[in-house]
Each structure stands twice: as structure tokens, then as C-alpha cells.
Amino acid sequence: MSSASEELAEYLASAPVIIAGEDEFLLETDKGGYQYPVDFARCDTPEKILRWSAHLLEKNWFTPRFARDFIIRACQRIGVDPFGV
Fold first, then answer.
1. Residue 70 and residue 19: Cα distance in Å, rounded?
2. Which candidate in 37, 38, 70, 74 could, as Cys together with 25 as Cys, close a disulfide (CB 3.0–4.6 Å)?
């Protein structure tokens, strides 16, 4: 049985890497691997974020956790509360 701190460390180590560049998000498809670019202009409305998320979910590296983190970051960038009503 692992301790809570070990579980937290493992959870954080497996977190998706999403880098906000100058004009795009860079989604790291594998630790230290390829960075998939998503231009900010292509996800500047909730509808566009939804379309991009649906597109990215077709990728085997874009896990549900990655999708959640991407949606939150993209919504925050455009000033939308991803958990709002």
C-alpha cells in the first residue's frame, strides 16, 4: 500500500503538460515528446473549445484528464468559467 504523498506524487507526475506559448497552446503528447500546437485563435470561444476537444479526443494520447485540463485552461484564457452555469 502506498502513502498518500506517494499517490499525490504519482498523480502529479502523470499530469498532462499544457504550455501556453505566445499565441498557442502546446500540448505535450508524451513526456519530453512531440508538442501538438493549438492556436489561441482556434479556441477563442466556448464553441471552438468544444470542437477542438472533440477533435483531440480522437487522438490516443489525449486522455479524459488531458481533455479536462485543456478545457479548463482554454476557458480560463478567454475569461469563461468552465464550471459556471
1. 10
2. 38
Give the N- to C-terminal CA distance of the chain in Å, as an integer.
40
Task: Give the three cell numbers for residue 26.
Answer: 502546446
Backbone phi and psi for residue 39, each to the nearest 5 degrees, phi listed first: -60, 140
pLDDT, tens digit (0-9, with 9 covering 90-100), for 23-73 = 999 999 876 678 999 999 999 999 999 999 999 999 999 999 999 999 999
User: Is 0.85 topped by the overall pTM?
Assistant: no
67 closest CA partner among 24, 21, 16: 16
Count of beta carbons in the 10 Å neighbourhood of residue 79 = 6
